[in-house]
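Notebook entry, structure prediction.
Reason for the run: the old model in the group folder had no record of what sequence produced it. Starting over properly, with the input documented here first.
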Amino acid sequence: MAESDVRTDGLVVVSTHAADPVAAVADIAASIDGVPIAGGLVFCSHRYARDALAKALGELMPGKPLFGCTSAGEVGASGYDSDSIVFIGFPADAFHLKLLPFHDLDRFTAEPARKAVRQLAAEARGEAQEGLGDQLSHVAIFLVDGLSHREEILTMTAQESLGDIDLIGGSSGDGLAFRETGVFFDGRFQRDAAVIGLLSSSRPIHVFSENHYQPGAQRMVITEADAETRTVFEINAAPAAEEYLRLIGEPGAELDLAYFATHPLMVRTGGAYHVRSIQSVNPDGSLTFYCAIDRGVVMTIGEPKDRIAGMERTFAAAEAKVGTLDHIVAFDCVLNRIDSESRQLGREIAGLYERARVVGFNTYGEQFRAAHVNQTFTGLAVGR
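New structure, fully documented this time:
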């Protein structure tokens, strides 16, 4: 069954649970029938057969830019969702979309990327102005392989080259398997890849990023780490997992994703505290992180804030920026989802997301401006 939200003055948003890829894309096609589309975003469960889904998506909007990724969960019309596809279509009367892919991220070099991103921005601005006029808003939507470990250098390089255009996005997921994620562009799902969608609009748009934690009193120093694999071996010169639990005050606790989600580590950068999420504990007692980590980093244990009240303020501020909300496109960390389940906040969050018209996916990390961040709700608010 598909849920669609199609208005003559709004984004085309479709959420479908059809298990067959062809049937799922048929649900999307039925909802956009007759609506001229400039391009689209698609987020899908990792359970779909990717080749079959890519083939069906390739036939959905021939000649139009379509990009997306596999997810660690979807955000549909009624909150957190699973085993589904979320499609977001941008109507041609108010939007222009142009894509720039990146392949072979292991061999990524910054200077050619800077040149390509600058060219993308210049061409997209020119094309959009020709079709939509001069008074436009622009944003770069960035999707990257969530297992690539290249988000930091890619995000920093892209934002530097974009100038005054904000970058926002997420790292692809595969449920919680951590085996193979996919970024969709050029008609197929690809590994070790990323894509920027330069979205221009005559509508007001606003980007934001919020986390639900504040720094606690405990401090720790990373004393042994492998930056390449994002693995921490020692904290305060003691085995990492053991010291992490000691500082929390629960030395016998079982370490799993739910525990990491409710006891995140935070680091102060750029005058503010950001979460550096733990992905897994290893047999040798080391900890692997979702983001860059290295020796000498000083961290603290995050303490939860009132998530519902905080998100209500965030959504109200977004609406104040853009006027009446069309939708909020969400790049919402999978650890937020796990934490909400642990704290039994699912129903409240579903109601909040439904009222604010939130759609998107659960990520393995979020990109916001020049930073790769963790355990945030990073959003693109689009006005009517």
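Summary: The mean pLDDT is 95.
The old model has been moved to the deprecated folder.
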